[in-house]
Write a structure and sequence with these properties.
Elements lengths: L6 E5 L10 E8 L8 H14 L4 E5 L13 E7 L2 E5 L5 E5 L4 E4 L5 E6 L4 E5 L16 H10 L13 H4 L1
Antiparallel strand pairs: 1-2, 2-7, 3-9, 4-7, 4-9, 5-6, 5-8
Length: about 170
């Protein structure tokens, strides 16, 4: 089986809103899992993420406010419902998320749900020893957030498999 190739989305730091974003691209894997049952899809994401060194941490929706994590990279596996999301903070870019998709968010990338199905749900995962703090943009704290983002270790593997070196290197 060939490794799926992600879309890459580059998001610059936004000094006006205080969102650090990242020099690393967001990775958007479309239709990683072709499983019709939502519960089985969630379990398959959890197994896949764990196998590639991203232990699953939760099942939940996407917050409806812009936020970021300066202390952890994050993988999101959509297992039920659809959502229109914004990446990059209040001035970011919108995209649609569908069951079977995976987002890999580098530390610092803003994200929020703008609109979602009532049953929209995801599996969230982080590399070992990375704990996310929920932060909102603050222009006065941008430099400190950028320093924390730069200090987050890069995992070897993508949560869907394959090396991150060529995608984030």
């Amino acid at each position: 089986m060939s490794m799926p190739q992600p879309e890459r989305l580059h998001l610059d730091s936004d000094a006006a809103t205080g969102y650090p974003n990242s020099p690393l691209p967001v990775l958007i894997y479309r239709q990683v899992l072709d499983i019709s049952n939502a519960e089985e899809r969630a379990e398959a994401f959890e197994v896949m993420f764990k196998r590639h060194g991203w232990p699953p941490a939760w099942r939940y929706h996407l917050y409806d406010f812009d936020h970021f994590h300066s202390t952890a990279h994050e993988a999101l596996g959509i297992f039920r419902g659809r959502a229109r999301a914004r990446l990059g903070g209040p001035n970011g870019q919108e995209l649609m998320l569908y069951p079977g998709d995976v987002l890999v968010l580098p530390a610092g990338v803003g994200h929020a749900s703008l609109e979602a199905d009532d049953d929209f749900c995801m599996v969230g995962a982080y590399p070992p020893d990375q704990e996310p703090e929920i932060e909102r943009g603050d222009p006065a704290q941008l430099a400190a957030a950028q320093e924390r983002v730069a200090a987050v270790a890069l995992p070897e593997d993508s949560p869907v498999g394959g090396s991150l070196a060529g995608l984030w290197g």
